Amino acid sequence: MQLTDLNPARDIGSNCLLVEIGSFRFLFDVGMHPKKAGNGSLPNLAKLPDDSLDFILITHCHLDHIGGLVVAARYQRGCPILVTAPTQLLLPRMLRNSVGVMLRQRDELHLNELPLFTYGEIEGVEDRLRPMSFGRSQVFEKNGERLEITFFPAGHVAGAAGVRIIHGKERVFFTGDVLFADLLTLMGARFPQEDFDTVVTETTRGARARPLGQTRVTECDRFIAAIALTLNNGGSVLVPVFALGRLQEVLALVLAARRTNKLPQSLIFATGLGLDLVDYFDTLSQSHPSIRFRRRVLQELNVQPLRQTLKAGREPGQRGLYILSSGMMVENTPSYTLAAGLLGKPQNAILFAGYCDPETPGGKLLATKPGEKFTFEKLQYATPVKARVERFDLSAHAEREELLAFAQARKPKNVVLTHGDPDARAWFAESLAKMPLPPRVIDLVPGEACKI
What we know:
By secondary structure, this protein is an alpha/beta fold.
């Protein structure tokens, strides 16, 4: 087997892995870097000759894994795109939203190359999606060789898959993005308990250990308590969320807290792509027991669509709980604008439900001390930080110790590190080297082929 990382950097960005095993040649995800725009956000697809792939395999629908799919498919005409059934439903909606974002970026950043693909091209890709059921193998044949592919539930987000590949005597497992713990809205990963020659693992949380005594459950409790305190004191709460997965999980947490009287009655507002995706989750939950979110959550909470006009420096006309995208409070999103209205008042709170990249507005706000001035550059507005600003670790990625334990139990000869920043990968490399029978650890060099 030979692997080539087409992500131009060792980071969580334009995730894309070229896999060559025997006569077979395929891509494992085709992402778009969330902090870049235009052609610079794509994987290095120039390394692929036109029409050279047998198929493209997609693990899940976050844009850092699917954002470049249409561009890759443009030059790999006719090759099937293997997905899970939930991904088949969600993927086109996520890509259509991406076109809208790129159209806005074209005007803001003066990038004539945007959008990188069109709505019409998305329809062409949609026709090429080939759904596979979890746990049911599909066999491909070529030049007298057989390649067996099986998807396994990976938690993380609806439809996410880990992938087992068998070629002759070679057995490989790709974790993809994974969460082993169950969520209120989604069952955790259910991976095969068998030996593999090679494990290709994500390393997202490699540089971050949870503080002693902290668990996901204690963080959820702390998160709900912070919301309750703010609402009881007459303030408004902004929870910036990612549209796919996080918005639905936060709504489920709020409903559970309401039912146990841990939260007061209040107005709840939501908007954007995440609210649209509720209907998709409702449809999927009826045929996929692992997906547990139903539209009736909105009805029981009486969630209102955000119809107010948000303005920098002005609090919203109605106090309440606002669950808005984007999760990192990126410019020109509802959470960014509302934050500018809430930040200057001490009774309010801005509560992040997960990781924020330090270079995003959300990350910069978390690094700003109370009383210091924070500038919303796109809004040309600045205010001292008076509201409560806090982050809660509700990550949809597995703990590093869980991934290490999974890799150790599979007794691999090789462990390949992906989907992580350099310090995260370094922790895994050091930890794997301490195993009784340490595997060969491979941290792929971007653009360089590596024989496994």
